[in-house]
Amino acid sequence: xxxxxxxIQLLQNDSSELNELVEQLLFGDWSSAEIDKVKENLKYFFxxxxxxxxxxxxSNYVDSVYRDSYYNYYSTKRKNYSRYCLKISFFxxxxxxxxDFNDVDNIQKNYLGYLIVRPLLKCIGKNxxxxxxxxxxxxxxxxxxxxxxxSCFGVKLKAEGFPHASQDSETMTCAETTLWSLLxxxxxxxxxxxxxxxxxxRRAIEPFSYERMLPSKGLTYNQISVALREFGxxxxxxxxxxxxxxxxxxxxxxxxxxxxxxxxxxxxNSKLGHAVVCIGRKDVNKQDVTNYSFxxxxxxxxxxxxNLAVAHGEIVFNDDNYPNYxxxxxxxxxxxxxxxxxxxxEVTQFIAPLYNKVYMEADSAIELSKSIVDMxxxxxxxxxxxxxxxxxxxxxxxxxxxxxxSNDEKAALLQIExxxxxWITELSTIDELNENKINTLLILDATGSRSxxxxxNIILLVSEGIFYKxxxxxxxxxxxxxxxxxxxxxxxGNLK
Length: 496
Description:
Blueprint: E1 3-7, H1 16-23, H2 32-46, E2 54-61, H3 64-72, E3 85-91, H4 104-109, E4 111-117, E5 124-129, E6 141-143, E7 146-152, E8 155-161, H5 174-189, H6 198-205, H7 221-230, E9 233-239, H8 246-258, E10 263-268, E11 273-282, E12 295-298, E13 301-305, H9 306-311, E14 315-318, E15 326-328, E16 346-355, H10 362-375, E17 383-391, H11 392-401, H12 407-414, E18 421-428, H13 430-434, E19 437-438, E20 440-445, E21 458-463, E22 466-471, E23 476-481, E24 488-489
Parallel strand pairs: 13-17
Antiparallel strand pairs: 1-2, 2-3, 3-4, 4-5, 6-11, 7-8, 9-16, 10-11, 10-16, 11-14, 12-13, 14-15, 17-18, 18-20, 19-24, 20-21, 21-22, 22-23
């Protein structure tokens, strides 16, 4: 394996360096037109990054994802395909490309991620790169992130971001790529799951397919859901046509985004169908949340809906037709496409890959939370309401780090029994929101049911210093004064 250094700016234009890079892919009997296409794809990808980055290229690299496709498909074709890829590591401005192995910290601190370049026309393979490496439009985004262990120069590194790859149109289309990236994310983030190659995806879906699966013709959304279930998830499919109020459909997408759950979105119009992964959002202007458009009326109370504000803001997609981290809006999801035929695309359905013991879904959690706020909490008018799912572990970590709670209050909260996942609802005024404070905290049991006693789903409810507890004798929820402060730190969120 050989390594070579390139400033990225030399690869953002037609240059001898770009030609040199492509020659390392060992294309063999490929035509000059095909090689030119590979150059264009690489140049376009590199142009979405800052021009001050440094790249280290490793040739003859063995990538497990590409090798899986190679041995199951490309090695059987008459045309000659190389077994080897290029691995390109991205480093920040202060990287010392005159490598000093006594200064490993310089390599680790400046590492931004990597890209696998496949010896295919659609050459952009697996990549996981920090959004901070991209051009300016990515600096204000918050996404689901995972750390993948990797190395460069033999130095152990961690690539941070969300997994992405382009489809190769033969072994993987947009649906397979969407499914692979979700499994790659979860498989590296949680011990419960594992990363999956394309051949394993095909084997899981094969019993539900009525024709050959290679070359790939794509997957239905039912097949994607079946595969997720086979790999340990409890997926939930949401159809836009099931909601008379389209804002409700978008609010559910936003709720899962705030929960740090990447979603498989179906985009369709009269001619086209496409699948993308929704992985995050742009920062929300907190003052804009009190816009009348995001008003939620609950009987005599007026609340402002954080999730509805998120739904109408800019959302982050990973689209296998484009480089990673595309910004768009849910009402016009393909706004970054240049072809007019994509203008009328709509989000028609999405799949939420839930943990299989999360029985209460987002729509139930949202409606239940609103009912509790209306029935129990005396105040709350003109507050901002935010509902999201999070793990018990993440929430307990937030409690231990909170600076607005005393040790005794933290100890009391940490002793409350919780399932693996909980639904959280927070209320705050706009002033409190600007200070990342809340006045009301509601924790709901994610293994609960909306059809059961409404109070049976409440794990904790604290509002403006009042602790609410269910009285099983009088069969009502009663409030008790506690030492809890009237406002305390909001949960920092599931996105980074």
